Amino acid sequence: MSRVYNFSAGPAALPEEVLKKAAEELPEYRDTGMSVMEMSHRSAEFIEIFNETESLLREIMNIPENYKVLFLQGGASSQFAMVPMNLFNKSKKCDLIHTGNWTKKAISEAKRYGRVNIVASSEDRNFSYIPELDKSKFDSEADYFYICTNNTIYGTRYRELPHTGDVPLVADMSSNILSEPVDLNRFGIIFAGAQKNIGPAGLTIVIIRDDLIGNAMDITPTMFNYKTHADNNSMFNTPPTYCIYIAKLVFEMIKKKGGLAEIEKINSYKAELLYDHLDNSKMFKSTVEKKYRSLMNIPFITGSDELDAKFIKEAAQEGLVTLKGHRSVGGMRASIYNAMPVEGVQKLIEFMKTFEKENS
Ligand SMILES: Cc1ncc(COP(=O)(O)O)c(C=O)c1O
Predict the structure, then answer these.
(1) Cβ(152) to ligand 1 under 6 A?
(2) Where in the chain is the domain with CATH 3.40.640.10?
(3) 17-256 domain in CATH 3.40.640.10?
(4) What residues form DSSP beta bridges with 145?
(5) Residues 30-39: pLDDT tens digits?
(6) Whose CA is nearest to atom 10 of ligand 1?
(7) Mean pLDDT of 278-302
(8) Using CA atoms, how far apart are residues 56 and 324, in angstroms rounded to an integer?
(9) 259-359 fold
(10) What's the DSSP call for residue 38?
(11) CB of 77 closer than 6 A to ligand 1?
(12) What is the pLDDT of residue 1?
């Protein structure tokens, strides 16, 4: 069995060269006589891996000195609670733009600890766009302003970030981190689960500006306090060591390819190929307004549940797998993260053409 083109939204495909390198080093890492999985997180060998991982990420994302990088567990979902617990320390209010299931979850967690002002929402058209913002609705006293930069389920993304003044901007970047360069200075916190563009599930990366650390609510459990992890260099407890090692291999590969500016070019090219095809097809269509289309997650439909099911089944027989859309949108979703090669997208388009010919 050869490797398929896996369009999963996450855990998602990893670069083949990373998997091969990991396989090579799996039983014995360099001359340590053991696997990275078996190493103490406090050993000199692992600390070296850890430090290299952080410095590579700092380099490729151009992370300013006054930001900490935390390597945590608990998934991006834990951040829905950690953010309010750590940042609700003045007005206990936050502003939020509601763009889908993941902001819905962030809203319900934040509401446990303070007030959530929904500045704008795209729920009226099933989250198929990013809403325009009315600045008069921003609360200058908010402790933070929350967005999800790429909506994995609905396939939308921000083209412009909101200008929030002194209110720290917090972003869930789980599904578009490392897909293009970002100006970290615009953010107070960004966080991401690893299982799309970073590595295996189990690692959560938080990049946080120094001044936002150390003012958590009293009720905050030790493990949910950013200060715990910042003070202990993410080693308060055992970090997800093997996931960190794989992330290092992924970061090395990004650097080798020329960094995020180059990665963005490839991602834009892949997405354009697929959107162009969708816009020209009579059978398949995109569910997202043009201006807000994601480079990473591309939902599409035929309009017939039967035809969608047939397409997904026959595509899988061609080695194009995990194309079923999320139940909130239906149809198909092609997640084309960094690890999806151009050839995978081309093969999908060729198959769509054949399928359309045979079924219309
Ligand atoms: C944008 C976004 N936020 C949060 C999550 C939840 O991540 P986790 O499963 O790591 O908690 C996901 C998962 O797919 C996601 O796509």
Answers:
(1) yes
(2) 17-256
(3) yes
(4) 95, 169
(5) 999 999 999 9
(6) 75
(7) 97
(8) 34
(9) Aspartate Aminotransferase, domain 1 (3.90.1150)
(10) G
(11) yes
(12) 63
Q: What is the DSSP string of 334-360?
A: EE--TTS-HHHHHHHHHHHHHHHHHH-
Amino acid at 104: K
- With tokens 């970030």, the residue in question is 161
Give pLDDT, residue 122: 98
Cα 64–chain centre separation: 20
Would you say the CB of residue 192 lies under 6 angstroms from ligand 1?
no
Query: Which atom of ligand 1 is nearest to 173's Cα?
Result: 1
- Structure confidence by residue, pLDDT tens digits, 116-173: 999 999 999 999 999 999 999 999 999 999 999 999 999 999 999 999 999 999 999 9
Q: What rounded mean pLDDT belongs to the chain? A: 97
Task: Report pLDDT digits (tens) over 160-173.
Answer: 999 999 999 999 99
Minimal CA–CA distance to 162: which of 120, 109, 209, 202?
A: 120
DSSP state of 199: S
DSSP string covering 91-140: S-EEEEEE-SHHHHHHHHHHTTTSEEEEEEE-GGGTT-S-----GGG--T
Q: DSSP secondary-structure letter at 142?
A: -
Torsion of Cα atoms, 316 then 320 then 322 then 327, to 10°: -80
| CATH 3.90.1150.10 residue spans of the chain | 259-359
Residue 71 — very low, low, confident or very high, per pLDDT cuts 50/70/90? very high
Closest CA to ligand 1's atom 15: 174
For the chain, what percentages of helix, strand and coil (3-state, to nearest 5) are there? 40, 15, 45
Q: Which is it for strands 169-172 and 150-151: parallel, antiparallel or unpaired? A: unpaired
